[in-house]
Amino acid sequence: MTRSAPDGDGLFFGMVAAYCVIYIAFYPASYSISDESCIIALARAISHGTVFLDSPLWGLTIGDRIISKYSAFHAAMLTPLMLVSWRAMFLLGAAAFLAGAFIIRAMLRRVGIASGWCFLYFMLAGALFYSQTVLAAVPAAVAGLFGASLCLRDEPRPFAAGLALGAATLIHPWTGPFAVVFTFVWSAEQGARRVSSFLSMLSGALPALIALMAYNHATTGSAFRDAYTILGHQYSFGGDHLAGFLPFYFFSLAIFPIAGWAAFSRRWSGTWAIPAVCAVTIAMASLYYYRDGLNVGSARNTFAALLAGFIPGQRFLLPASMLACLPAARLLNSRTDLLSRGAGKIAAFAVFVVSFLLLTIAHQSYLDAHAKVQRTLADKLPADAKVASSGDATKEFAPTRSVFTGAYELETSDALPGDQYFALLETPGGDPPPDWAANHTVSRIPIRSWAWNRDLLIGAPTSGGKQQQRSDNHQGH
Predict the structure, then answer these.
(1) Strand order in the sheet with 421-426
(2) Contact indicator for 362, 306 with CB cutoff of 8 Å
């Protein structure tokens, strides 16, 4: 039996309002992550009535077709926004983040905890960061959170929970293990109703399973094969990165949310399902071969380097960290009445505003630098030209400001035809490969911000065969 929740809506709605104001005031200037560029390309393809891409720059070639390794279901959610403006796509992440806040509020109120403890959710730096991107991380995690919430109530709704967990998996396959483990463990705890609960959740997830199998069959020719299995990332789940990644993710859960380790306790979780999904999420992330944010680039100060190295790395933890807000709030609420006092609420509100503002300003500086790269490419390169790119420059050709129909990726060790353009992003002072620079006029455009610094090198073919180089001395944001 649950109790009436103490008052805390003033702090909750204050944080909701502050999030909206800061988000709008610093609306994302552009995209900056290679995954985003591929998702944008897929959303554009869907807007033209197909899930197949028109350039190998954004996908995997199978026969005479190019498929995306990213979720077409997530991209389809973005497509209506893209039809309005490609920049409108950022609204999906923000809307999902706010939806997650209201889900946490409902979960807290059902167990008699003031909604002000949603402060823990609003301090999830990874969720704040990725809500300002077009990635699937926040929408998928919130869908998973909603599915769990439907089970963790006095009168569970397992069928609806299955629908939500299935949707989470469609939005981002990474959420699949979270959904499966939660379903099995929670159902097993239902005593005499364990079989019916499991079958209800399975029935709810069935539409998502059928949709995923149909999509796989249409794109790869097999209902049980997707782009990831073809790429072979599953073979990278070994122990090579465990020593470095496990401590990072394990200690991250203690910080995001604050007291997040309470999720490993059945006393504070109220179920074994939460400890199980948190353990599995951390284990999977630790075994994966990649973690966001390891490359801090050429940030000018340690604060920017900290943001670049720590906060983006929270992406794979989001389903667990959001769910961990419930046991963390239970633990802290039993230990302190800080958020029931006026001074405590004001302090919590101020901490959130300052933290989100600093994170957003730093991220916006990084995005402004990428926006300059993308504007420069649109201004200096013919849209129909053959343009070779390599490394970080490749993602900057996403179909936003211009659609570069002739852009392609080329290793810098390969020969570049003299009649083609090239674009490279190098550390400040870096030069293009000599073979690429030959017979090209090379423009160097400094991209400078306090969060990220690069030189954009654009090579235009010359008829005289003489190498030239000039510098466009425009400073970044």
Answers:
(1) 407-409, 387-389, 421-426, 453-461, 440-448, 468-471
(2) no
C-alpha dist (Å) from residue 444 to 425, 440, 471, 473: 10, 12, 5, 8
Q: How far apart are the C-alpha atoms of 405 and 56, rounded to whole Å?
A: 11
**What Rg do the C-alpha atoms of the chain give, in angstroms?**
24
Sign of CA pseudo-dihedral 455, 459, 464, 466? positive
Q: What share of residues in the chain are helix, strand, coil (percent, to 5)?
A: 60, 10, 30
Pairing of β 440-448 and β 468-471: parallel
Query: Would you put residue 191 in left (φ > 0), alpha (ψ -120 to 50) or beta?
Result: left
pLDDT per position as a tens digit, 229-242? 898 877 778 888 89
Burial degree of 466 (CB within 10 A; 0-12, 13-18, 19+): exposed
- Alpha-helical regions (H) of 291-409: 302-310, 318-323, 325-335, 342-380
Q: Where do we find the tokens 């709704």?
A: 157
The pLDDT value recorded for residue 195 is 98
Please report, for residues 125, 248, 269, the alpha-carbon distance to residue 108 in angstroms, rounded to integers and kept in the order given. Answer: 20, 28, 12
Instruction: HSE, CB side, 13 Å, CA atoms: give it for residue 340.
Output: 12
The pair of three-digit structure tokens given for residue 332, joined into one six-digit string? 């802290």
Whether the bond into 399 is cis, omega within 30 of 0: no
* Cα distance between residue 161 and residue 424, in whole Å: 47
Q: What is the pLDDT of residues 17-67, one digit of tens each?
A: 999 999 999 999 999 999 999 999 999 999 999 999 999 999 999 989 999
User: pTM (2 decimals)?
Assistant: 0.94
Nearest to 238 by CA among 297, 195, 284: 284
- Contact in structure between 215 and 207 (CB atoms under 8 Å): no
pLDDT the model gives residue 299: 58
Residue among 257, 17, 274, 3 at smallest CA distance from 119: 257
